[in-house]
Amino acid sequence: MSLFSSSKLGSGTRTGGGATAAPAGVTGGLASGITSGRLPTRQLGLRKTAKITDEEFEKLADFIYNKTGISISIKRKYLLENRLGARLSELGLKTFKEYYDYLQLDKNRAAEMEVICEKVTTNETSFYRDARQLGIFQNEMLKETLAKQEALGRKELFIWSAGCSSGEEPYTLAIMLHEALGMSIIGWNIRITANDLSPAMLRLARAGVYTDYALRTTPKGIIAKYFDKVDAGYQVKPRVQKLVQFGPVNLSDPASTRRVPRSHIVFCRNVIIYFDDAMKKKAITAFYDNLLPGGHLFLGHSESIHKLSTAFRPVPKPGAICYKKEE
After folding, report:
1. Three-state SS for 160?
2. How many CB atoms lie within 10 A of CB 116?
3. Which fold has domain 131-324?
4. What class of enzyme is it (predicted)?
5. pLDDT value at position 122?
6. What is the pLDDT of residue 64?
7. Residue numbers of the chain with a pLDDT score lower than 50
8. Alpha-carbon span 79 to 73, nearest angstrom
9. DSSP character for 221?
């Protein structure tokens, strides 16, 4: 999950020299206006969106933070204005104060929070993302955990994919388990709990249909083995889907995270980088409490719990790092 991806702010493409190319099918004077940045709004048939004051931004940003844990800095004010301005028009509201009041009082505010989550987050992910880290997981931590469980006579493995977006990460982990266990997976109790804040992302994840772009870093042999070609793209095979259970979880809500079953391994990649320190500590505590003794936590390559928690022992590896909860 990432915030305010610039790729969604316009339909043009970036070209050399800082110019923006017109969208496909736009020609003549209209295209010239787009590329020069001087096209009047009325020519595009767009409404002028409401402006957000500093006070309105502060109230709305605090509300979003308290509900989702997503921290939006004042430097991103114009992006919040851009993303939510059109929503005001859809609701027949004139100011962001009216929108804030709508969120506080309207009976539909729970559904509106889903809209906000879709507007202020961007779910950029793919299968086999960060192959180096996944290789370390597959060749070391996964093998170690499976061997330990088998030696204990407990053929069970529980994984939590926190912030699973549209499902690429948990399905990747499920495929890796099939690769590691082969036919013997039938004798194992495998459960991958995959959670996200966005109901829309969870619907996509449960459907399990993906484009070529989502599979761009996936080995062709894996695609042939674990996906069926369908009109809309590639459908994850049922034997992969059955290992994953999707559901909503809010990492900012301890009551929500406590409902997640205990895990041997937790993945939460490219999520906490968008939290402030207070929210990061809350999420890390949730991961620690969820992990069984000896369990491992995997974060994104640019994320760290340094200076935030001493509960985990860092396990540095070439090009990657994970964290271990002591036995």
Report:
1. strand
2. 22
3. Rossmann fold (3.40.50)
4. transferase
5. 65
6. 87
7. 2-47
8. 10
9. H
